[in-house]
């Protein structure tokens, strides 16, 4: 192992050692605060290392990993999001289960899995990453064992995720039989030597699409989304919405670009249908929900549909657009679920619309932050979501994907309705004075509050001054 | 440098007013008033110096400001002021001040947040009138929406939520279509010339295929005719206007609708001359239909604010008629209409608001005989009802007269129908007077005549509308330099196209 090899995988080492360190620490003494600090520090150090190391060229560890600009960017994004999720987890779990420490191990392992996913260039590392991520998520979703719905969500996710992994695996096997290699670039070179795509490879890609589509939660593989979002603890939901989906999206972009999927009209057609169906079905189902978590679940289906527009546009601009939108979407989703977590009490999450009635007048700052998150999801100016949507549309229009772009516009308008509904509920006059929850020392919430404030500021900063982020993405992606 | 100050002043003023309300609600009212007054004075001084500034820049532009914003996409913070923008800004700040004054007593709930929203709507409108970068234009176009939504949804009347939703979704959806068209324009221009930019001055004169031009023009048109609004895209307007608080109605009718008209003049006509000519007969027909339809519905309303809202639909029809007649008479009529309608309808909404404050209903059936107890208000109501029906001597007459002269050159039949609309205007305006101020008073409302504050709002509006009716020349002079390029672009186009002749059967297009 060369020095560069070693330095490249240090981010993975840090995470694995952090997980082991937490295990030992729990063996010595259970202390939520200590574990929390270890997690935070290791994630932060990991990110700092990534920035400090600043890889100047693409580095490959054969045959599994590739460390390029795209991978580094997504690794950084995942680490920061995991950090934000950790921040909001503390206050949330402090008032719940007695055994909260193992959660952090799972969180770190899931982060590790997502990172492996975004730097993999081989079916084996892909599957390895995916399973590390999924297995951790199984237990994270069902972590609050006393809640029936949490268990239900965990089991649902377990069964469906196992199913989808099987599909993915079978698809990989089919591709392997035809092509004889599991490395993305070799599959690509083998395919390009052929006249047309063999049926068996196409079937393999089709089955893999099922597996990937499930993780992304796009229509028609979206059935799990609402129940899991609703049942999982709010910070875990934030994690699923962002890291899990984002990691898979990054992998999809890498794989599709590597095999140059844009030349296969069959694949393009499939993804176009998935994109349009996700936008419409996601938005229509969201319109009908009265539960904020479910609204966000369906809206995230629609958002993945929007993302697919830029993905289908492809090219440098398309990938830049996907990356930028992921940033905006990560900030917004983490923020929205973070606020949901801070509003939750011991027994249940604040997920009903009623929990938000009059919030503007009782907790103006929280409501303002939540409003800006929702407006960003709706793509309203002065927020990162607006620039993100601009990027997506720009990528689509450039490649003349008029159908998809018009669908995106139409759906943005539909989506507005349910975002505004939540905002309008927050502004209603609050007739009933709800007793303030005095279960916890308010200082516990300071960390969550500060995290939310930072996310909100980031959101507006990127919305007003997107150039810095654009240049960063552009430079990282141009790295070779 | 002066242009961004106008926007920043309002945005900063909004934030300060929000915070200031913690000390005392009047603090936030005064801050809003002062910020708007300062802007008004700055703009007024610019107006006085127009000749000098135009000589200085040797063009129709009085001032420009450009700062790169997202250079990667060729987006810049690009502002420019010409006669047209200047007049719109004067109107914006003037009505803005009156909106603050009119809410002085009406709004007692969350005063700070109210003024924050008020100033941010006005900041968005100011941006729309100033920006010369299409991305930024869309940006400000959207910035107007959220605070306006809040104004309706928090401080509106009974059915405010529905009205706010409808307003928001209509305008947002149509705005997105415009956004797609903006991007289409951006790429077509970029692929042709190699410079990817959203700069208005560079995009003007882009050559398209006829089909591309048609689609892009329709994208822009969608946003503007929803905002204007043109029948059949008007259905958000009566709800939003009648449910909004008085200040909200004043801003909606006086300013927000004008952004649609401004967009037609500033973007549709110069950017897509060919497609604009193609659609002209349809657009003018819709305009005339709107004049008649709006007047008819106005006549049948029982809700005073809804009635005034429908008169807006009717009056905005003249703008469609004028813009697409493509000649100087009509275009000047359109600009006059934008200003005079802003003032007269704004005043009518303020009157409706002050009546509502006194009797807590907007139902015309419960009014009547108010003249006896409130002669001053009655007199002012009479002035604006007369303005609304286009009585000579008041500003609206000049506007509609110019528009009709201009459109007569383009089409006789439609002009005749539009003139019939003026008669309909007479009917609904007189109905307002008869049902509200004349007749016998059947109920025992406690009525007091206008207070000093209300007089402070309405008397200047009367003076302005009379001034515009008697001596509109300064306005016409101010706006002429910015209309010249629009005309120049069009005199060269060969106008009488077959489509038009087919539809209008025999009318000639000069």
Adjacency order of strands in the biggest sheet of chain A: 1-2
Order of helices and strands of chain A: HHEEHHHHHHHHHHHHHHHHH
Shape category of chain A: globular
Which strands sit side by side, in order, in the main sheet of chain B?
A: 1-2
Terminal residue distance of chain B: 43 Å
How many H/I helices of chain A?
19
Order of helices and strands of chain B: HHHEEHHHHHHHHHHHHHHHHHHH
Multimerization state: heterodimer
Strand content of chain B: under 5%
Unreliable residue stretches of chain B = 491-510
CA gyration radius of chain B, whole angstroms = 22 Å
Q: Roughly how many Å is the radius of gyration of chain A?
A: 21 Å
Overall strand count of chain A: 2
| Largest sheet entry of chain A | 2 strands, antiparallel
Biggest interface, CB < 8 A? A-B, 27 and 33 residues
Q: Please state the average pLDDT score of chain A.
A: 90
Q: Which percent bin holds the helix content of chain A?
A: over 70%
Count of helical regions of chain B: 22
Quick tags:
heterodimer; A: about 475 residues; mainly alpha; two-stranded antiparallel ribbon; 19 helices; 2 strands; about 0% strand; globular; B: about 500 residues; 22 helices; disordered C terminus
Summarize the structure in words.
The complex is a heterodimer of chains A (480) and B (510). With 480 residues, chain A is mainly alpha-helical. Chain A has one domain (3-478). In chain A, 78% of the residues lie in helices and 1% in strands. Chain A contains 19 helices and 2 strands. Chain A starts with a helix and ends with a helix. Chain B contains 22 helices and 2 strands. Chain B has helices at 2-20, 25-48, 50-57, 83-106, 111-130, 134-143, 145-155, 160-193, 200-203, 210-227, 236-243, 246-271, 273-299, 304-323, 328-359, 370-373, 375-389, 395-410, 412-437, 452-470, 473-491, 498-504; strands spanning 61-70, 75-82. Chain B has a two-stranded antiparallel ribbon with strand order 1-2. In chain B, helix 4 packs parallel to helix 15 (328-359), helix 10 runs parallel beside helix 13 (273-299) and helix 14 packs antiparallel against helix 15. The longest helix of chain B has 34 residues, at 160-193. Chain B is globular, with a radius of gyration of 22 Å. The model of chain B is unreliable at 491-510 (pLDDT under 50). At the A-B interface, helix 16, helix 17 and helix 19 of A face helix 6, helix 7 and helix 8 of B.
